[in-house]
Structure formats: structure tokens, C-alpha cells
Design brief:
Radius of gyration: 27 Å
Number of domains: 1
Distance between the termini: 82 Å
CATH class: Alpha Beta
Oligomer: single chain
Largest sheet: 5 strands, mixed
CATH architecture: 2-Layer Sandwich
Amino acid sequence: MRRRRYRSHDEEPKLMLSPMIDMMFLCLVFFIVSTMYMSDIRTIPVRLPLAAHSESVSKSGFSVTVKKDGSLYLDDKPMDMDTLVTNAALQSRQDASFSVIIRAEDDASYKTVVTLLDQLKGAGVSRFGLATSAGDDHGQQK
């Protein structure tokens, strides 16, 4: 009778890098795409004035909405001007790159917008932006 000899395989298993690299690439693409949808700005829908030569801003500290009736909103919460200016002043002291984007409805009072700008400037906020609607959608900013 013959004895079988079992060979012990002392070879290390091969590590295949191609599938691993493919999986890392797919995970990277997934996280990039998913974070793009998570950065949705919560604001009140308003009809913004048109501007042909506007720029897109990716990040701001506060997004303030000025409605036609003069009401103010910080993101999607109604707020009076004094509270808004106080909060902006605190944020401005903590972050040197803090900015305020003002989304004034196209029928909003110019006086309300200028008063808001003046109050914010007096509180120490020095970086502002005015949101506009670009293109043919003369309506909701997305």
C-alpha cells in the first residue's frame, strides 16, 4: 500500500490589487456623489432678480432671505433684524472668513436690504453676497 504524502504549501497567498483598487475607486465616487446631495441649503423659496453676470458661491456662513413684506429669515427660520445681526456678529468674531448671503426677493424693499447691510456692517460683518437668479428660470433658486 502506498502512502500518500501531503505536501504542505508554504507559499503565501497572492494578493490581487486590481479588484481592491477598483473597489476603493467605487467607494470614493459613491462618497463624492452622496456628499453633493447632502449639502442642500435650507431656505425659503423666493423669486430672485435676474443677473446675467453672476458668480456661484459654494459656501457661506448665513443665508438671509428678505421677503417682499420685509420679513427676514435665517435659512428657513423667521427672525427679527436685531437677533439676526447679533448672531452674525458672534459668528463673525469666531470665524474670519464668515460671510452673509442675502437672498432678497425681486419685489423686496431696497430700504430693507440697505438697512440690513448697514446693521451687519455696523456689527463687524464685512463679507456679503447678494443672491440672484441666473438664466431663464426667473424664479426659484435651487
